[in-house]
Design a protein that fits this description.
- This protein is an alpha+beta fold.
- It has five helices and eight strands.
- The protein has a single domain, classed as Peptide Deformylase, CATH 3.90.45.10.
- The termini are far apart.
- The relative contact order is 0.18.
Length: about 210
Amino acid sequence: MSIQENLIKASHLIDMDDIIREGNPTLRAVGADVALPLSDEDIILGEKMLEFLRNSQDPVMSEKMGLRGGVGLAAPQLDVSKKIIACLVPKEFESEEAAEKANEAYSLATIMYNAKIVAHSVQDAALADGEGCLSVDRDVPGYVVRHARVTIDYFDRNGDKQRLKLKGYDAMVVQHEIDHTNGIMFYDRIDEANPFAIKDGMLIIE
């Protein structure tokens, strides 16, 4: 049974044991484009990846399953070298009341196949608190320099081509996951000599 076949079994919930860590060569390989129309196996894998993110953000499930909280996951992190990513970014609310009134709890909840950046801002950005990764079990301090705004082309689970314009935290998350499908780790984008260097005009996202 292949790794993907095991991951998509009806009884299987993706957990931290399924996620490979830095040093595994799959994390440095460029993932294969997913064939269209999408196979059932690739559709199910995407759904399982999104399910993992939901579980990781659920206090009860994450404790029960021993999950680290995540907002994004890429197939190569599961040792499946394909261009499949899932993103689940909760919206920030000022109060519980505001959260209850909102129609949508997430600013981004999507599975993307063959996602690629087709346009981006000249302005760079980085998260104030740096980035972490489910495949990296250590803290790597420094600004991870990315594009402040991006336009992404991808295919959805129906095989339809979509275009999405993102900025802020959502843009950072998607760029992190697309990097995974191209064999790039987040710390590759930190200036080794000066990890907290701020270039002219760089946006620091709190």
